[in-house]
Every structure is written in C-alpha cells, then in structure tokens.
Amino acid sequence: MEKESIELPGASKYGPYSAGVKANGMIWLSGQIAVEAGDDVQAQTQGALDKIDALLATSQLSKHNLCFAQVLLADINDFAAMNEIYGAWVEDIEIRPARAAFAAAALPAGALVEIVVQGACRTSF
User: Fold this and answer.
1) What is the pTM of this model?
2) Which of the residues 37, 38, 69, 94 has the least number of beta carbons within 10 Å of its own beta carbon?
3) With a cut of 70, which residues of the chain have pLDDT below it?
4) At what angle are helices 79-90 and 41-58 packed, to 10 degrees?
5) Strand duo 26-32 + 113-120: pairing
C-alpha cells in the first residue's frame, strides 16, 4: 500500500500526526480546529472548514469528494450555530457527506469545534 502525507506548510499541529493521509483511493483528514479564527463557534467552524478546503486542494480534491464528516463540539448547545455555517458549506454538494456530531469533554487548544473528514479520491474501486 502506497501512502501519501497531506500537509499545509506552516500550519499548527497539536501532536505527532499527519494533517491528512491519502491511500488506496481514499483520503482521511485529521480533526481541524481554528482557534485563531475567533472566539465563537461560527468563526471557528468556518476556519476549520477553510483548512479542510485547503488540505483537500493540496491533493487536487474538494469537498465534493467527501463521504463522511465528524463534528466535535465543546458544547452541544452550539449545534445550531455550527450547523448554519456547515450547512452553507455543503449546500452545493450534490451528495452531501454522511455526518455525526456530538459534544466532547474538551478539544485541543480550547477549541469550540473540531471537524474530521474522510473521502474518496476516485469514483470507482
């Protein structure tokens, strides 16, 4: 199996992991947070989605390749606010990714939201 690391030069990481991995026609991105984007869940959600877009672009992919998204929230009461931003982001995707969203006890760097995605790099296997 051939694996390829996906990284954004200069991007912060909070542990010993790859920002993304591409192998066997699939792509997995580590959880993306954006505490630098602002102090509210909507700003941090948009920042995390922007990072996902940038990581996908480094592999000549886009959000249209995604099959699954997992959203972790520091506070489940932020679900509706996060969903406004996420909903706008997936609005133009014909087949939107399956998704799970739930509260986590704590996220890295005090983030309010973390988003993990997986997708396909090709249409047939």
Assistant:
1) 0.94
2) 94
3) 122-125
4) 30
5) antiparallel
